Amino acid sequence: MKKATAVAAAAVLIVGGYVGATAYTGQRVARAYGEQMAKMEKAYNFLHVVQHQADKGLFSSTYTTRVRMGCLPVGAAGDPQGAPKPLVIGFRDHVRHGPFPGLSSFGAAQIDSELILPDDAPQLLRQYLATMKPEDIRTVAGYGGGFRSAVRLPAGEFSHDGTRIDWAELRMNASGQIEAGNVRYEAVWPQLQIRRTARDKEGQGAAVGDGARLVNLRMAGSAEGGGTSVWLRPSQGTMDVERIELRFTRAGGKVGTAQVDKLVYATELGIDKELLDAKARIAGNLSVKLAEDAAPFELKDIEFQESVKRLHAPTLQKFLDAALAQAGTCGAPAPAKAGLPAAPPGADTEAVAVGEEGGGSGEAGDDLAGRVMAMLGDLLSHEPELSVDKLALSYAGQRGQMSYALSLPRATPDELIGMRALQQKLRLRARLQVPSGWIDKVAAAGADPKGAQARLMQVRSLLDTGLAQGWVLREGEQLVSELQMDGGTLAVNGKPLKLR
């Protein structure tokens, strides 16, 4: 009997502890939801929470949130037939509380999310979302603030007015730390296809018309907390596409095609001592046929890399705040921290954002212009640089490339206004290198084959002039030109040119 009593007491303690842990977890989840809503509105000025409802239970809760994107037009509240309605979308999160939410694994909560569409959303979209299962958007949150999410969007199709869109199942996974702002993600989308059918002149039959097809899209990336904002924080991402196919009809009924293979787009953003460096890289191959029986125009191994260096992150954030402020005020005075002049109640905030109607004149416009110029001066005080590190491609078996770097160091707002001052401050370095064999190829590639010889003579005449003046140099089979501007002096291949 004593043994049975002890077992019963232990069971009561276990159940009581589980219930207590679940109740504690439920409170933490509720508090976390409120905090995240506040952070979202602060980070994204154009989003406004219009509903946040919590139906709390001991073992599970449901949170319903609706968000309006953009603002209601000033004065439109009493005019139901006024400006277009803003977009309002929402989520309904079904939350099972820990410590074993859904009896699946140890954690704080298991969240299944569903999208809430506007009342006037198309019926086809409603039908598509109805095919989704509760676990298709699922997040598991841990007690330490970590999370992992899995999203599955089922395959589907949509047809309207001769256009058909169909897509394969999309899957995305994400994980990270909520409070630290760290996140990693990856996504895979095997196919998206858009096709348009067109009937003949008599309206009989259906012929395959223009369209596009994307094959095997993959994305991956990460972002870290600790930046100036959700927009300006260390991050990197890549997107690669196996193939993009295009089919288009030209004048006269000729059908052309274009294809991009092995497309890669990569970005990287880093911050060191409040200075931001960003890089973007694109690579791929392009093939275009202007008619089904025409020879393809092919560009192979395309490489493009662009960099921005030494951007002052806090000043750039002020620019972002100013740009987003009017989107977030909804007719109310713009906050002073956004760097904008306050607008009187009921005033046209868009007009205040750009000055008075007709071009930014007026006290408010002058004040804003002064603030913008001051911020621009702060950016330039750190000597930022914009550069195309590399633009290279192969055509007709030969490779050419170019690069340039542009900077405007330590310029004051007053110097930005005068052209002469800009010439003195501006620094530019550029290099162009193309194969000489491209000259004949480009001249022959015009739309008028009969004029190819005349175009070739014109291009060669210009090239001869450039070679005679030293603006173009020959390096083997390559034509090279280097340009440099510093201190108001412009030089081409080391020879100074006068600027008027």
Description:
This protein has 4 domains: 1-154, no CATH class; 161-295; 309-391 and 398-417, no CATH class; 419-500, no CATH class. Helices cover 26% and strands 43% of the residues. It is built from 9 helices and 22 strands. It has helices at residues 2-43, 123-130, 313-329, 349-354, 363-380, 413-417, 419-425, 438-444, 452-469, and strands at residues 47-56, 60-69, 87-97, 109-116, 137-141, 146-153, 156-160, 163-167, 170-177, 182-198, 207-223, 235-249, 255-272, 275-289, 297-312, 385-395, 398-407, 427-435, 473-475, 478-486, 489-492, 495-497. The chain is globular, with a radius of gyration of 30 Å. 11% of the residues are buried. The model is unreliable at 5-26, 75-80 and 333-362 (pLDDT under 50).
Number of domain modules = 4
Tally of strands = 22
* pLDDT averaged residue by residue: 76
- What characteristic shape results from the CA principal axes? globular
Which bin fits the share of residues in helices? 25-40%
Task: Return residue spans where pLDDT drops below 50 for at least 5 consecutive residues.
Answer: 5-26, 75-80, 333-362
Query: Main beta sheet, described?
Result: 22 strands, antiparallel
The quaternary state of the protein chains shown equals single chain
- Overall structural class, as computed from helix and strand content, comes to alpha+beta
| Radius of gyration computed on alpha carbons | 30 Å
**For the terminal residues, how far apart are their CA atoms?**
107 Å
Q: How much beta, percentage-wise?
A: 35-45%
**How many helix segments?**
9
